[in-house]
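In the current project phase, the collection of sequences with tokenised folds has grown. A representative record is quoted in full directly below:
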Amino acid sequence: MTQLFYKDKPIIGLEISTTDIKVMSVDPKKWLVLGYGSLDLDPLRIKESLEGDSDYLTTAIQKLLKEHVVGELQSDHVVIGVPTAKSYARTFSIPSSAVNNIKDAVEVEVDQYIPLPSSTLYIDHEIIEKDKKSVTVLMSAITKSVVDKATAAVAAAGLETVMVEPSINAVGRMMTATEEGNLPSVIVDIGVAQTDIAVIIDGTVRVTSSIALGGNTFTIEIAKRLGLSLQNAHQLKVLNGLNAGTRQAKITSSLKPTLDKIISETQKVIRYYNERLNKNRKLEQILIVGSGSNLPGIGEYFTNSLVMPVRVASPWQKLDFGELTTPAKQYRSRYITVAGLASVKPGGIWK
């Protein structure tokens, strides 16, 4: 691997999701936000940009930078966060005697666990632990088209990409810095339309998964069950949620199928870790983040279902907006991923 020559220059974070794009510039030494902004996207058009020939993403980035930034961005060097659902991470162990055949082991892991041809993926691996008996390998893969389209759009918008990573890795970086993320943890990042799940050990994401359900799903299900408009359903969700009240039974009943699917996916990730990776390091906590974490009572619901300590994380408190206008309370959790991207230390970026 080759280290980037401009390692001492500042970087900014740019998160590309299926529903919006966000940008942020942070002084990581002080956690001081120097500039930030967001722009909602058309999900169908952003999908076309990442998979087809549309220039919609380039135009959106240009508009974001020109019209929607609060404060100032300190650089044109960008760390891009792409949808976790387009990536794969698996950790596995092989005997120390087989370390010379590690590439073959990675290929087997890709063929067994990734439902895409290896020719369509960028694949990398890293040895993260080793002892006399075994070597632990982290395998990462991401869809080539997503990386290529995202970096091309960023370049066309006048920015220079220095690193690309799945958004859940950026969330993991924030958890490590703010939420006792040094503990063996499960992160459940409930976004607007997608929930990403990861196990993080010693600050490193070991396994990930995604499911196409999120905060908007909660709102839609409440609206259907209670016969409400989406606006009223959203208000009921964030004000009452799963807490005790006159409508608790109906709200809980409407949300249960979606919540249980997210919990089931979380259990699969936990089971994978326990069966393949647990070297006497028991998972100690589950941290819920993202826009869907604003559902009152969700921590208790997960705790009861998973029989593990679960809490809604608040890494937001780490950020200092100084004299900048702070995002409205209901939108703050959406900036956690891009803050994690923006907090990458330039000297630690490798290509």
The first helix runs from residue 43 to 51. Residues 12-85+144-177+315-348 form a domain with the Nucleotidyltransferase; domain 5 fold (CATH 3.30.420.40).
